[in-house]
Design brief:
Blueprint: E1 3-10, H1 16-30, E2 36-43, E3 49-51, H2 61-66, H3 70-74, H4 84-93, E4 98-102, H5 112-120, H6 129-136, H7 138-147, E5 155-159, H8 165-175, E6 180-184, E7 194-196, H9 199-210, E8 215-220, E9 225-233, E10 237-239, E11 243-246, H10 255-259, E12 265-267, H11 274-291, E13 296-304, E14 307-314, H12 324-331, H13 336-351
Parallel strand pairs: 1-2, 1-4
Antiparallel strand pairs: 2-3, 5-8, 6-7, 6-8, 9-10, 9-11, 9-13, 11-12, 13-14
Helix pairs in contact: 1-13, 5-6
């Protein structure tokens, strides 16, 4: 008997296009899973939901590049979109084995969608509503990890309106120091992130970060090496091989670097001593468990002479051709179709009340 899987992508966040790119790779992988029928569901930037026919219209990168607006893209699916409330009803009555959520950022990765699915009794992949909300809020997540004794960079949350522009610049420069990193507290994919090296840059960086939300995270800049480590729940919680992210000296691992092939070099497994690799993997699993992540996650790090520090936890990391978790999975011997199957099976076991990780 075929299992029917809804592939949910798009969404209202600034990471909309990345979600489509991720879905193109995930959809191709699902097509290789025997006994799986994929129903792509596209959510526009205005929040309208469009159904596709079974195993049809899996988003392609060529189609994405040709489309100038999401309403035109949506016409490749159902001719008229439906609201979230209507979509929730459809998902509740359709016989989906699970909803595979490949939506990044606000309204997809931040716990709101997960909470609605939980109330409606809809099976879905990935972390639950509480863990998703916590991981998405960088400032609160860092405070939580710090309270649990996990190593993090020095940071300060900066709410909009808490200080005048001039005061904010002075407070950040004094408490965190320069250089520092300014980022929206509730975005992923390095959207709105700036490395600030002087006071003149700081004011502009804060203003840009506030374009994405009411809370900004300011962190110390760590001069060191950048790593990431994926975590999978596949019977037990395990860390994937560590990846080192090597970027040109003139840039950093920003939105463009993450999703443009060839801009960065990723080395998996990282060419580091075994003790450091084990420490990063241990911290990734500890952070995954501490926040309450489920299914899969990716934990990002910076490491200097004092050791690795946790930058953030991604509960729905990218699945594009340049994305890091799928690359690490391949090194671990897990091809993309198997990776998707692990994630799907975890969600189904969880919905059935089966113990899914240890």
């Amino acid at each position: 008997m075929q299992r029917k899987v809804a592939l949910l992508f798009g969404g209202e966040s600034p990471e909309h296009e990345i979600s489509i790119l991720s879905a193109s790779k995930v959809g191709a992988a699902l097509d290789q899973l025997i006994g799986t029928q994929t129903i792509p569901i596209y959510v526009t930037k205005t929040g309208m939901w469009h159904w596709s026919r079974p195993s049809g219209d899996i988003p392609s990168e060529e189609l994405i590049q040709a489309v100038t607006n999401d309403e035109a893209f949506a016409r490749n699916y159902s001719p008229s979109g439906i609201s979230f409330a209507q979509a929730l009803l459809h998902l509740s009555v359709d016989e989906f084995a699970t909803v595979l959520i490949i939506m990044h950022g606000a309204n997809g990765e931040d716990g709101r969608l997960q909470g609605a699915f939980e109330l409606a009794g809809i099976c879905y992949t990935g972390s639950g509503s509480a863990a998703s909300a916590l991981a998405m809020d960088k400032s609160r997540c860092q405070a939580y990890l710090e309270a649990r004794g996990l190593p993090i960079p020095k940071f300060m949350p900066l709410p909009r309106g808490a200080y005048s522009d001039a005061d904010a610049v002075g407070i950040v420069a004094n408490e965190i120091g320069l250089p520092c990193v300014v980022k929206p507290s509730g975005c992923g994919s390095s959207v709105g992130v700036t490395i600030v090296r002087d006071r003149e840059q700081l004011d502009a960086a804060l203003k840009m970060a506030f374009e994405y939300g009411e809370l900004v995270q300011v962190e110390e800049f760590i001069q060191g090496r950048e790593f990431t480590c994926g975590v999978l729940d596949s019977g037990k919680t395990t860390a994937l091989p560590v990846t080192e992210i090597i970027v040109p000296k003139a840039t950093f691992f920003d939105y463009k670097a993450k999703y443009t092939p060839g801009v960065t070099r990723e080395v998996t497994p990282a060419e580091i001593d075994a003790a450091l690799a084990r420490r990063i993997q241990e911290l990734a699993v500890e952070a995954h468990r501490a926040v309450g992540c489920e299914g899969f996650s990716r934990v990002d790090f910076m490491a200097d002479a004092d050791g690795p520090k946790i930058l953030e936890i991604n509960t729905i990391p990218g699945m594009t051709q340049t994305s890091l978790l799928p690359q690490a999975a391949v090194v671990a011997g897990i091809q993309m179709p198997e990776l998707m199957n692990i994630i799907i099976e975890h969600s189904i076991r969880r919905a059935g009340g089966v113990e899914v990780s240890a």
